[in-house]
Amino acid sequence: MSSDTITATGTAGPPVLATTWQRRSQFKLAMRALRRDRVAVGALVVLVLVTLAAVLAPWISPYDPLAGDPQLRLLPPFSEGHLLGLDGQGRDILSRLIWGGRYSLSVAVVPVLCAGLVSLVIGMVGGYLGGRWGDSVMRLLDIVFAFPIVLFAIALAAVLGAGLVNTMVAVGVTLVPYMSRVVYTATVQESAKEYVEAARAAGAGHLEILRKQLLPNVLSPLVVYGTTLAGLVIVLAAGLSFLGVGITPPAPDWGVMTSDGRQVLLEGYAHVATVPGLVILVVALAFNLLGDGIRDALDPHKQTA
Amino acid sequence: MSGRSSRRPTVFRRSRVRALVAVVALSVLAGCGGPGNAASGAVGAPKSGGTLAIGIESEVDVLDPQRAGGWVSWRVNRQIFEPLVDEDLSKPSSEAAVPPLRPGLATSWEISPDGTVYTFHLRPNVTFHDGTPFDAAAVEFNIRRMWDKSFEFYDAKAAGQTTFVWQKLASVTTPDPMTVQLTMSQPFEPFLRLLPQGGSGSSAIISPTAVRTYGNDNVAEHPVGTGPFKFADRVRGQRITLERNDAYWGEKPYLDKVVFRPLPDPSARVAALRANEVDMIAVPPPDSVQGLADSGFQISDGAPPHVWYLSFNMNDPITSNKLVRQAINLAIDRQGLATTLLRDTVKPAYDVQAPANAAYVENTAAYGYDPDKAKQLLAEAGYPDGFETTMMTSVDGSGQIIPVPMAEYIQQDLAKVGIKIKLDTTEWISYLTKWAQGTSPGVGWAQQSWGMTTPYWLYIATSSSLRAPNGPNVGGYSNPELDRVMGEAISATSEDQAVELWKQANRIVTDDAAIAPIVNDKAPYVLSRNVQGFVSPSEEWYDLNRVWLSS
Amino acid sequence: MIGFVLRRLAWTVLILLGVSVLVFLLMQLVPGDPVRTMLGMSATAEHVEEVRHELGLDRSLPVQYLSYLSGVLHGELGQSLILSQPVSAILFPKLLNTVILSVGSLLICLLVGIPLGVIAGARQYSLFDRGSMFLSLAGASVPVYWAALVVISIFALQLGWFPTSGMYDTRDPGGFGDVLYHLVLPATAAALVPTAVIARMARGSMVEALHGDHVRMLRASGVPERLVIWRHALRGVMPPVVNIVGLQIGYLLGGIIFVEVVFNWPGLGGQLYTSITAGDMPMIQSGVLFIALVFVLVNLITDIAVALLDPRTRKAA
């Protein structure tokens, strides 16, 4: 949703682990810290529950998310048999929310994972090579940075056409420059450290240094950043659906549902948009809080609540 | 909703936290609706003055009637510009199912017995808003702008929009300063009805002085016509202001000013009306109409020449099968769609022509809702278990009502007879392009909303010579028998004869199920209590010179 | 410093060039055909070709791009394909409207975000800290188009404090006061995300500053806590905050399209969205270039400001 939230976290100077041989014990420490962080644990529980619901949708969903009864359309929440009411087509909102996780969570996670992999390659190679080559890679990405992110996603979505896969591609491509920059910054910082020099002096090859020395240390800021991004992406994808270039109806995607319900929000049927809107809020928030938690756990200073 | 009739106070009240929290909770739980204002009784005699603010559903493209596309633009342009022959829009659809033709800038006209020569006698003592006198030279100038490639002010964009009006024109002459004679290459019966059309370009007359002064492109920023209102100012995305033309030749408007404000978001439109920021809105969301009526707003609807229809892909192995097309027609519950999802803001459509058309045929029996018969036909066609296909539609757009929810409704109906459809939805502007290129393989049908008061529209939508991408017959339908009948209708020399032939054409298309008409829009407008004299005629546009504001 | 600014300016030109190539290539792929859009549903293929030729759209892509570029270099942004009007006449007013909305919203971000972050940072782990950070994060996790409608429903319809949408009164457009009155709700909605970002950044920097040796020394020497926070620690907070504010401006310019759509604010975002779907290349090119230019320049100015605030980064830049 926001380039700055994205860039902000990127420039915040992600915490870096000092050395490889401290890594394992530090990981344990971090896990312990994370477990003590009640907010982060809560966020994780929310995400696990939502994911479980989406996975188990065929068994736990009370109704077919695509079949509605037009005679009963816009039934309010807490009606008999329909806890969260019915939408404009007379479809059960709770069932649609449960199934919708399959779309919304995929849109949140898949592009971040794919963009993360691509960024690892671009960022690490650029950062490790440094000098003129590394610089040019980053300068190319600068061009995409200057391009307003929301418009970039819209343009990509317009090119590809609406649909689940296309939305994921559009969002994923949009994320690459931001994630690459995080990886690049971390790689540059790490490459300058003594242990890398030491490994090089000991005769380690480029690939080995990249894989064994740099990768583990670069991964942690990327994981922190990616978790936070997932929350933003869910909201961005909802925005694309709202403009008609995202996921296509009747898919029970949360963004599509919120966007559908907008039309009747002012007409006394606020629940149709509000319920999925709140779900987006909770899930996006959970991703953000989990990201914060992981960062804090990795960071001895414990900067953020 | 208190204080709807008074202006909002500009002094901000201090926050009242408790009240606010209560309101937040309330609005999230119950949404927002306001207590109604009872409609007032007597409104008294019409009086002059005031500004009418209209919330329109999209931005107007250009204030050049010959170039402009879409109904939204013509609704504004029509107040500024006039055609030679006009339609009488002073009667609601209930009184005139098809708006009668009436003199516009021509007071009378004759057609030669062979149907090829049209002689127009022009209205005397008419001047354009810039003082230029209206005469035969002005008419000739305008026609050449749209039709004569060798003319200095020929405009390819205006020509492209008005193709169907001038396609049979062979020559223009001006025997005297107040007479224009048009000779056609062959009889062209629909011609008079096409003159006042405005959805796709329009033949309305622009001041030649303005075109000469500002050029073909820029005249849209300085629109000068002869109509009841003249252009005052335009701020893109915000407003178009028109003022009363005190020198108008006909009945002068009551209103001092009309402001058209583009409010593309339907909820924003309703909110602006409820907050008294505008006096009238077009295209309210169907679910808002009852609530608005309960709050004391007036609902004005009609029966414009509008059909929301599906064009079947004739090049697809499945939908090229007539039985399949008929089955789909039978499997869609049009009445249910109209009463539940659309809350009676539309009528179910069974004929390919809208009722606002002389060739309309009452066709209810042909494709009533009958899923059992649909299944039977599918089995006969070799698809006892149904099939999968794709439906193309837009997500918004002029006259499209609420295309996606409507498509979802159809999707559910068809699922009941085993037909699974995938929706291919596109934003309106991109959709127009995609639609005009025709249905591609794998796409069962494409949806569109269109129609005209002239039966000639059927030719535009189904003639084999206009198969996409060469024209708007997007499904690629071709039927030599239909072509022959329509050809005869076009060159008929009497209207009665033409209407009979067009009705015959309707039956052919209906029997073939080349097009599935779904609903006819009632095109509701919602007006504040103080707006008087507004009429919803059987057209996609309206006149404003009889509208006035009561106190 | 001057050398640094000059180098960055030269770099700006290259970036803009790159942006324009990227936009041009991307837009070739968008399905919308401007001529078809312009001529409507009944135009025949023959007329479409005629107008394509008139507009020069039948030339090869490199030729089209170079002719556009040479136009820009001559200060000529060209004409909108759909509207046949000069691009500058349509885009400049809309850019101005977007800037007004962005500035209004930025003011809200600063006035709310910085104090919130500073106080939260100074009282780390307090109820205020947790509560305010949670709320600001929640504000940033809401789909803006939904939040905007809720805001309209409450403050415009139920309470009637503000107009529902638009920039001026419809019947009787006023001046600056009228704009300000219409600005409050959309600016607030647009501020949701950046406020959260700024508050969190300010908090993080505050915490870091309070952990620094400098502050420890001040505290040890008995300087009152209030002075430590508002005079000394705040100084350390400013550079990252200025940095992030610069990025917010870029975001606001391109990203408030959702707010513009729901509040019917006649800005650049909504216009560009329409132009993208219609394939109106000259409009898209110039609009995106405007935003990119502002974005790059604002970044340059922020970098200079940060350098001036914090001499250590001057070398790194």
UniProtKB/TrEMBL annotation, chain A:
Domain ABC transmembrane type-1: 105-291
Protein name (database record): ABC transporter permease
Species whose genome carries this gene: Pseudonocardia aurantiaca
Similarity section: Belongs to the binding-protein-dependent transport system permease family.
Compartment(s): Cell membrane
Classification via Pfam families: BPD_transp_1, OppC_N
Membrane topology classification: Multi-pass membrane protein
Keywords from the named record: Cell membrane, Membrane, Transmembrane, Transmembrane helix, Transport
UniProt keyword annotation of Transcription present: no
UniProt main location, coarse: membrane
UniProt keyword Lipid metabolism present: no
InterPro entries: BP-dependent_transpt_permease, MetI-like, MetI-like_sf, OppC_N
Transmembrane residue ranges: 39-60, 103-128, 140-161, 222-248, 268-290
TrEMBL record, chain C:
Keyword match ATP-binding: no
Keywords: Cell membrane, Membrane, Transmembrane, Transmembrane helix, Transport
Membrane topology type: Multi-pass membrane protein
Database matches in PROSITE patterns: ABC_TM1
Localization (cell): Cell membrane
Domain of life: Bacteria
Residue ranges annotated for the ABC transmembrane type-1 domain, each copy included: 95-302
Gene3D superfamilies noted in UniProt: MetI-like
This protein's record includes keyword Membrane: yes
Protein name per Swiss-Prot or TrEMBL: ABC transporter permease
Transmembrane segments: 9-30, 99-122, 134-159, 179-199, 241-263, 283-309
Family: Belongs to the binding-protein-dependent transport system permease family.
Native source species: Pseudonocardia aurantiaca
InterPro entries: BPD_transp_1_N, MetI-like, MetI-like_sf
PANTHER family cross-referenced by the UniProt entry: DIPEPTIDE TRANSPORT SYSTEM PERMEASE PROTEIN DPPB-RELATED (PTHR43163:SF6)
Predominant subcellular localization, coarse grouping: membrane
